[in-house]
Amino acid sequence: MAVRNRTLTDNAFGTKVLVSLDDHGSAVTIDASELVNAAGSGNRLDIKRIEWCLDKEVAITFTGSGVVEAIDLAGGTTGKFDAHSITNGATLAGNATDGDIVLTPATGTDGFVYLELVKAAGFGN
What we know:
Elements: E1 2-10, E2 14-24, E3 28-30, E4 43-54, E5 58-63, E6 67-73, E7 77-81, E8 98-105, E9 109-121
């Protein structure tokens, strides 16, 4: 059970992340507060593009003071989604640090998810 969460690029307006899964089944967090130009709180990431190749389903959610479903990626598929941005709808209460993105794979998932993210709020923008 292994996961590799690698930031490929990270600049003032966006970031690109590759998450590789090898027999993995635990949640993986893309932590907005660890990215370039992160503000003290209120950082929010929207999803601009997703590409994947997975043997099992992966749920992608936005988190803040609550959890909002972004998209479910079907298992046994290869694909991409870039028809429009998926806006981060998680509520960011005054005490919520950031709007992170969480990928939750089914038990024993193999494959990858590539995400292009827009720094929609916070980050000095």
